[in-house]
Amino acid sequence: MSSLTVRHPEDGALLQYLDGELGRRQARKVREHLKACWQCRAELEELQATVNECMRYRKQVMIPCMPEPPAAWGRLDFARVDAELARESFTARLGRWLSPRRNAPLRWALSGAMALALAAVVVLQLRETPKVEAAALLRKAVAAGDSRPRAPRRLRILSSRGPLTRLAGTASVRPAAAEIEIARHFETARYDWNDPLSARAYAAWREALARKVDEVSTLDPAVYRIRTTTPDSELAMASLDLRKTDFAPVAARFEFADHEWVEITESVDQLDSPASTVAGTTGGTPRQPGVPPGPSSSEFAAAPAAPAPNEELQVVAALHEVGADLGDPLEISREGGEVVVSGAGISAQRQQQIHNQLDRLPHVVVRFSDPVLPASTPAVEPATTRDAAVPAERPTYTARIEQRLGGRPQFERFSGQLLDWTDAAMSRAYALHRLAEQFTAASESGMSPEDRRTLRKLGREHLAAMQQDLARIQTTVNPVLSGIGATAGAADSRPAPMAWQAASERVMASGHRMEHLLAVVLGAASGNAGGNAPSDLMTALNQLTSDIGQCQRLLSNE
Q1: Which of 239, 361, 425, 520 lies at a CB distance of 3.0 to 4.6 Å from 227, suitable for a disulfide?
Q2: Mean pLDDT of 420-444
């Protein structure tokens, strides 16, 4: 699954969730995310397994090896003790103190210290294991990459500055301003910008770090993910997805210290790729242009055959009717003449809904594994008030917003409502982006008119829902920000894209910027150095509104 499609909890959030240390609002969001993300459920299970192993080790190894504690003291008769000490010589008293029985507490204390040291070694070894796994995977990936023939690869790059494409291993003749700025970030972090989607570049950056934390996980049965965080580089976090069959990199994400982010995937022509991808995002098999419908004969016109109905698109449309294209962990693949829809960790009720939608379609097979949720997931009481994630030292404008709203409770209701609307809007942005990634302009041109209308209807519905949430956000936030002196700038006057697929990338980039600025304004994130976050947020909302309207116009041109 592409890293572009799912937003995972931040570092440490799963462990805090396991320990019951998250606020009610954050715990609810993590719990809802776990229902739809098998990757994070697997990470949570690994955390729980590690805790269980430590507890089992302490119970079975450390505690049995500890000596018995010293015997309880009797009543103290100070008068008798003083009389005895007066009669004893110093040598006798010293010998009595060093006797085995009197020295038992000291021996017990030393044994306890040794046990704690042993536990520390075990914990250190558990923490070192991901580093070993990451290094081994990267060595294999580098060796596999060196054995493959060098071929030009076109990279799709998405960042807060917008989408762009470039050829790996080459320098752009006239790079755009966005590419120049991204390249500067990579050069500052000492990461090879010439071929950023490669195991060799990732390994070289990782090996140069003095301090780092590695995580190795499995996204699905076909992909490994290596994730490295560090405080010693301008590149604070990087992740690399490797295909298990040949250790080829398929996606990467980079997060820099100044909150700039970059996501890179290899751009593959959909006409040449098999129809197998994440639910809601598969492109199908286009017709072969110029092939006559029957035997070659001068008696028949050599007209091309009409394209067959796109079965994958029919599945996507059916899932869309029950909202299963907005984050459910589903995959669509083709096996021979059948379209297979599979998923894991989905509740029985949701499985039945999906069966009801898909069982009526021909050539569609639905396969589910039993839902698996960690048994140790802490129970969190329903939230009666929202816990806005606001640091102790809030920016001045955050405090001013709170003062303007009339107090902390009003600010929490205000921020909670805005974050809910933002989550809903971004889920639509991700769904639209997945459609655009797999149903490219090239594959869409091979569809029948009916399938094309279905595809564009799905896109328009996602945009309409996103626009509705965005209108709520603007109506709520603009008067408050204007009241503290914020002003909105105009949207960029960029040339309109030629296809709605390209416009959807702009929607995604603008949505990410709006989401980050809103978190900064509400005190839930830091950043925006040198800027005015309230004014920048109002400008970002205008930009997103403009990009949504532009994409809607392109989708309406049939």
Answers
A1: 239
A2: 87
